[in-house]
Design a protein that fits this description.
0% strand; 12 helices; 80% helix; 271 residues; mainly alpha; single chain
Length: 271
């Protein structure tokens, strides 16, 4: 199936999957599933040196498309976060919350067990604890500055991009990294982007191998852990309540738009 797909199809698919890297609330893994590319992408990344020429030929247009999407949307999102940060986050909250029921349905595809709720709780608590580390460490620590910080951001991006249902950019918001990385992309700041890439590449390979193994053996538990991570990211990145009547109307309106857009996308997935 992969060989039958043209270069242009993979380029366009890369652009679509790039939305999962940039737009909070949109999962790059889910988009890849919809396009029928998730399994071959994971297989190619998990074993990059097996048939490496074909892997490069397959992955290169996807990467190019994602990069174009990243550059295209970064400026728009930087403006929105600068001018209307709370309302923008409420829109993304709508996207995430509306996608949770479909994630639960997918997680229960092979049946439901009460032990799945333990996995959900583990995912939830893990995300909350881990996102609290940069705040506990403080602004001057190695966790929030320097090469280690950049590698951590790249790792978070790689994890969020590979795991279906989890939004890479929403994870970055939860960690407090999103706007800084968005600014680096807009300004093409290589002093930030290169160290981020050094964290991103190992993370995406390791997580791809792990997801390839876990989904084959314990699908339900992994799926519920991902739902827990999604709920934890909502908790960690909650922007607070609107302070004025105008802000309340704007936030609720954009939240409703996010729910509506996500619902349309989910309905199309089902069809």
């Amino acid at each position: 199936m992969v060989k039958e797909q043209s270069f242009w199809y993979r380029l366009a698919s890369g652009f679509v999957i790039g939305f999962g890297m940039v737009v909070p609330g949109v999962s790059g893994g889910v988009l890849a599933m919809v396009l029928g590319l998730y399994a071959p992408i994971i297989a190619a990344i998990a074993k990059p040196f097996a048939n490496w020429r074909e892997n490069i030929k397959f992955l290169a247009p996807l990467g190019m498309g994602a990069a174009v999407c990243l550059l295209f949307l970064a400026r728009i999102l930087e403006y929105l976060f600068a001018q209307h940060p709370m309302a923008t986050l409420y829109f993304f909250f709508g996207l995430v919350i509306a996608s949770i029921p479909s994630m639960v349905k997918l997680a229960n595809a092979k049946g439901f067990r009460l032990s799945f709720l333990v996995s959900l709780l583990v995912g939830l608590l893990t995300l909350i604890m881990v996102t609290g580390l940069p705040r506990i460490a403080g602004e001057g620590s190695t966790l929030t500055s320097g090469v280690l910080s950049a590698a951590l951001k790249g790792s978070v991006l790689g994890i969020g991009l590979v795991i279906p249902g989890l939004s890479a950019s929403f994870l970055l918001i939860a960690f407090g990294f999103y706007e800084e990385l968005l600014r680096a992309v807009v300004q093409l700041d290589l002093t930030v982007l290169i160290p981020v890439a050094l964290g991103f590449l190992p993370a995406i390979v390791v997580v791809s191998k792990a997801m390839n193994w876990l989904f084959k053996r314990t699908y339900g538990h992994v799926s519920y852990a991902i739902i827990g991570l999604m709920l934890g990211s909502l908790w960690a990145s909650f922007p607070g309540w609107p302070r004025t009547a105008f802000e309340l109307v704007l936030c609720l309106g954009l939240f409703a738009c996010g729910v509506w857009i996500a619902s349309l996308f989910i309905r199309r997935q089902v069809e």
